Amino acid sequence: MPSNPNRIAIVDDDDALRDALAWLFSTRDHEVQSFASADAFLKDYSPDRFGCILLDVRMPGMSGLELFQKLKEYTYLPPVIFLTGHGDVPMAVGALKDGATDFVEKPFNDNDIVDLVEKSLVADQEHRSQWQAKNAVEIRLESLTPREREVMTLILTGRLNKQIADDLSISMKTVEVHRARILEKMHVKTAMELAALLRDAGVET
């Protein structure tokens, strides 16, 4: 299944409900993929395939709540909206506290659920962009050697090359080489750009 962060996933063991929701969203020009079980959904799942997940609380086998916990193990969690019966509302509220986006009680209003999903798709685009930016910076950081990480930390505190050389008992020339490699690997030209990159990505060093 190709990636599409605007696609909506429907995970529910009720065939009629899945079909009704799939039709509803298709009439609003949304791409939808439905699954009759948590296992079927997880079979080829990755976070980049869906921008919003509609998830039934109660299903045979793995429940919606159990599936939600598995989804949280991935590096990115798209918005998850629980579909609940009246008796499942307390569980859905608990899921909200645990990171779910919202829940919709059955039977639901068509316009309300479409509005909620569309808002979630917009929010996902923003959060996904932030996550991708942070992930890209973290990958660059992983390319640094332990010594380069040490030098970078000192650079970010404002230490000069001579001070860093004294701190680490290495030569000025070695510090200059490390500094140049750090800036090259992090795709920046100055220490100020490096600090701004890490700050904007929300990355802790």
From TrEMBL:
Transmembrane helix keyword on record: no
Statement: the UniProt record of this protein carries the keyword Transmembrane helix: no
Gene3D superfamilies on file: 3.40.50.2300, Winged helix-like DNA-binding domain superfamily/Winged helix DNA-binding domain
Keywords attached to this entry: DNA-binding, Phosphoprotein, Transcription, Transcription regulation, Two-component regulatory system
Stretches assigned to the HTH luxR-type domain: 137-202
GO MF terms, alphabetically ordered: DNA binding
Entries under SMART domains matching the protein: HTH_LUXR, REC
Residues with the 4-aspartylphosphate modification: D56
Pfam families: GerE, Response_reg
Domain Response regulatory, first and last residues per copy: 7-121
A single BP term in Gene Ontology: regulation of DNA-templated transcription
Record SUPFAM superfamilies: C-terminal effector domain of the bipartite response regulators, CheY-like
Protein name: Two-component system, LuxR family, response regulator DctR
Source organism of this protein record: Andreprevotia lacus DSM 23236
Source organism phylogeny: Bacteria, Pseudomonadati, Pseudomonadota, Betaproteobacteria, Neisseriales
